[in-house]
């Protein structure tokens, strides 16, 4: 069980590192994981449908 948990933690760390390197601006790329979670995941949003498209409004 500990080996599985370790693998999951390592995968999460790698995903965070790749996200920071490839997708984020310089300010967020240098930030800590707690700040990234707050800035990226705790954002109010609304899914709006228009015609055949669905748009995420932030």
List the keywords:
single chain, about 60 residues, alpha+beta, two-stranded antiparallel sheet, 2 strands, about 15% strand, extended
Secondary-structure blueprint:
Blueprint: H1 2-23, H2 26-29, H3 33-41, E1 46-50, E2 53-57
State the gist of this model.
The chain has 58 residues and is of the alpha+beta class. The protein is built from three helices and two strands, in the order H-H-H-E-E. The relative contact order is 0.09.
| Class from secondary-structure proportions | alpha+beta
Global Rg: 16 Å
> What's the tally of helices?
3
Detail the poorly predicted runs: none
Total discrete domains = 1
- The strand line-up of the biggest sheet is 1-2
**Strand elements, count:** 2
Order of helices and strands: HHHEE
N/C terminus separation: 39 Å
Percent strand: 15-25%
Task: Assign a percent range to the helix content.
Answer: 55-70%
Report the principal-axis shape.
extended
**Overall average residue pLDDT:** 88
Characterize the largest beta sheet: strand count, sense, and whether it forms a barrel: 2 strands, antiparallel
């Amino acid at each position: 069980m500990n080996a599985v948990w370790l693998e999951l933690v390592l995968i999460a760390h790698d995903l965070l590192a790749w996200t920071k390197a490839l997708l984020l601006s310089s300010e967020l790329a240098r930030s800590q994981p707690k700040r990234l979670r707050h800035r990226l995941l705790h954002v109010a949003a609304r899914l709006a449908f228009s015609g055949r498209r669905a748009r995420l409004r932030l």
